[in-house]
Specification:
With about 400 residues, the chain is an alpha/beta fold. It is built from 15 helices and 13 strands. It has helices spanning about 5-10, 20-30, 35-45, 45-60, 105-115, 135-145, 160-170, 170-180, 195-205, 210-220, 240-255, 280-295, 305-310, 310-315, 350-360; strands at about 65-70, 70-75, 80, 90, 120-125, 150-155, 185, 225-235, 260-265, 300, 325, 365, 375. The strands form 4 sheets. A 4-stranded mixed sheet has the order 11-1-12-13, with helices on one face. It has a 4-stranded parallel sheet with strand order 7-8-9-10.
Length: about 400
Amino acid sequence: MDTSAKFKVLLNNPHLLPELRNIAEKVYNNQRINFDEGVLLFEKGELAYLGTLANYIREKRHGDTTYFNRNFHIEPTNLCVYDCKFCSYSRLIKERAQGWEYTMDEMLSIVKKYDAEPVTEVHIVGGVLPQYDVAFYTELFRKIKQHRPELHVKALTPVEYHYIFKKEKIDYATGMKLMKDAGLESMPGGGAEIFHPEIREQIAKDKCTADQWLEIHHEWHKLGMRSNATMLYGHIEKFWHRVDHMERLRQLQDKTGGFQTFIPLKFRNHDNQMSHIAESTVVEDLRNYAISRIYLDNFNHIKAYWAMISRTTAQLSLNFGVDDIDGTLDDTTKIYSMAGAEEQNPRMSTRELVELIKQVGRHPIERDTLYHIITDYNDFEFADAPKPQFYKLPVIN
């Protein structure tokens, strides 16, 4: 049964609540749902219902296509002037013995380590320290582009930019223009957490506010550039806080069209100040992906970080609105593993990612950062090395 037929079966279900039927009809007719309807989906939407709606949108936009890229991470430091309660990665400056602080030469050495690899993106994000200022990052970006001009530089969150621009005494527009001129090509979506101050003040006090986070992305978009957005879910927030977060993103996207991907980030409770809070279940993770796909009608892509949620949950998510599972990564990234993610050394080969996607009946496409197609792996034949073995999940109907 194709996706459209499944949707019609849903609409003809006599037991479906009228308010949920109304939302389904809106989705089927490509109409935007409102804030209250978003909350209702969290409160009353069952997994199968949400999956039907989200997969309908996903397949209408992307068919079976599932994107990934070949990337690596540089994390300049895990020391930070901020003390976010959910963070397992960072250490305060007084805890320097537990951290690292890469020099520029050390970061450039990481870049050069991949000279023989067909990677297309370097993802740079880490803690906030005074020595990593405007001059440091503009020089770093220039040197990376001088060394490898085709390597896409995706770097730093508004948390980092807000700090370094304030220290430099320049406004956001000036600062983002400096970064673009130095070689920055896109921004990751981190640092968003939960926008509403009721929650933000409790989990991420003192770092940039929601309005400042959004304004930095706004200035970046005004330069004609693209960025991603995230939401940290599954801790002390209520459902309506999640919808409020997505509503603010949706409003900015209506203005600029500069966001390309939304990435829900699952709260992990290992070794942080919120370790007493239970993590969300896989069912709730899938519900959250689905509602994100339904609510963010002006975002083209929904991404699941396989390294954060596990390979099998990433496979399942491809039936709940997700069309991107990020990249090959490398074990240079510690943000996920230090938070207690299943992947302690998050690295997958291209072949492993392709097989993971194919096993659930999806069509693997290697993309660059801006979603230009690099290689269609649907009929691609790898060398004679044994295929990677995953637990084969059924395609969810």
